[in-house]
Amino acid sequence: MAGGGGGGAGAPEAPERPYELVVFGASGFTGQFVVAEVARAAAGGELRGALRWAVAGRSREKLQAVLERAAERLGKAALGAEVGVLLCDVGDAASLAAVARQTRLVLNCVGPYRFFGEPVVEACVENGASCIDISGEPQFLEGMYLKYNEKAAEKGVYVIGSCGFDSIPADMGVLYTRDKLKGTLTAVESFLTVKSGPEGSCVHDGTWKSAVYGLADQDNLRKLRKKIGYAPVPVVGAKLKRRGLVFYSQEFKEYSVPFMGSDVSVVKRSQRYLHTELQETPVQYGAYVNIGGLGSVIKLMFAGILFLLLVKFSFGRKLLTKYPEFFSAGRFTKKGPTQKQMDGTSFTMTFFGEGYSEGQDPQNGKPNVKICTEVKGPEPGYVATPIVMVQAAVSLLEDAASLPKRGGVYSPGAAFFKTKLIDRLNKCGVEFSVISKPEV
């Protein structure tokens, strides 16, 4: 295994910690799939040595049961003594600190992060452990940057949010598109398509809760960004036009709407970092999701109007979180998807990029090259997210020399752009490819 004890790449060699990674919230709905994926990566020899890892949560029985299920999925009788079981509670700071002191990296699966995320970040930073999560909540992600970036840099640890389907495919997809274009990429639009089998698809209501509280709190997000005082990102090349709330996409022959997740804000943070720290040309970005025909548009509009009305009031938020299935027309459920639903679901994110060929000045004239790339993978929430999170963890542990020199709070693109993360994902079924070569 690369790297030393608790510190990041630049930290002095500390005494070895018992574990390289700990999955916190391991018995939660998403956590159980992350555990199974860590077990698969550890058994598959994806690291340079045997992985020392542990699961952490409130109940020893539940954690043991999750390890048994993970072993079953691998066709093993048990995972063996190399996997530790640590008891801790997000409400007990001392227990979190005790876990953070024992590992180089925490994979935090306990959401909604706006309620439960900060104590974990604080424990990790204070105790010299890095931390990654799968939050799609911009206010949490950017709030942690404001509060812990300097401290994490001092400690030489990395705090990297949104390391799941939100927002690694988008963030790394933009960087992949940039690297494949011969010339200067200045703008990208992505279109997400989720296909499901005869069983349909649904999402666990944890994600729904995050969306409800996130949309209710837009004003505070604006205030937070003012407080951070981000440097403006210059527009290079032709300005990317914003599309309407609903539009017909000629490329896909169906209707599309803006993607409401964290992708746009995460990509912007990465582009700002690459521009301010490394003087790279910033890429403008817009994210959309394909929703189908006119019937889908009408259904979505009714649901959307109802959602936006209710989310403004506390009794409305109570209703939304109590009856997710009703208000999301079956898209979100308290049980989450069945194995059959997950097996039948997949995603494709298509990126349309434009820019300027080598030797062309992006400050003058119209873009003269185009490129189309895609990222595709299995069911986003509980198959692709664990793969992506675990490969981000492997990159953090194995590619330490390629991480930013200073520790800090980073978006995935800013942290991983020099690492082998995309190669690792390609080998694990989340595939990045060029669909059409740049044409001048």
Distance between the termini: 45 Å
Radius of gyration from the alpha-carbon trace, in angstroms? 21 Å
Give the overall shape.
globular
The helix content, as a percent range, equals: 40-55%
Strand order of the largest sheet: 3-2-1-4-5-6-15
> What is the helix tally?
17
Sheet having the most strands: 7 strands, parallel
Structural class: alpha/beta
Number of strands: 16
Mean pLDDT: 92
Q: Your description of this structure?
A:
It is built from 17 helices and 16 strands. The chain is of the alpha/beta class and 440 residues long. The strands form three sheets. A seven-stranded parallel β-sheet has the order 3-2-1-4-5-6-15, with helices on both faces. The N terminus is likely disordered.
Helix and strand layout, with pairings?
Layout lengths: L18 E6 L4 H15 L9 E5 L2 H14 L9 E5 L5 H8 L2 E6 L4 H4 L1 H9 L3 E4 L4 H18 L2 E3 L7 H13 L3 E12 L7 E2 H12 L1 H11 L18 E3 L4 E5 L4 H16 L5 E9 L1 H17 L3 H9 L1 H4 L4 E2 L5 H5 L2 E11 L12 E10 L1 H19 L9 E3 L1 H5 L4 H7 L3 E9 L1
Parallel strand pairs: 1-2, 1-4, 2-3, 4-5, 5-6, 6-15, 7-11, 8-12
Antiparallel strand pairs: 7-13, 9-10, 10-11, 13-14, 14-16
Helix pairs in contact: 1-2, 1-15, 3-5, 5-6, 6-9, 7-10
Keywords:
22% strand; 440 residues; disordered N terminus; 7-stranded mixed sheet; single chain; globular; 7-stranded parallel sheet; 42% helix; alpha/beta; 17 helices
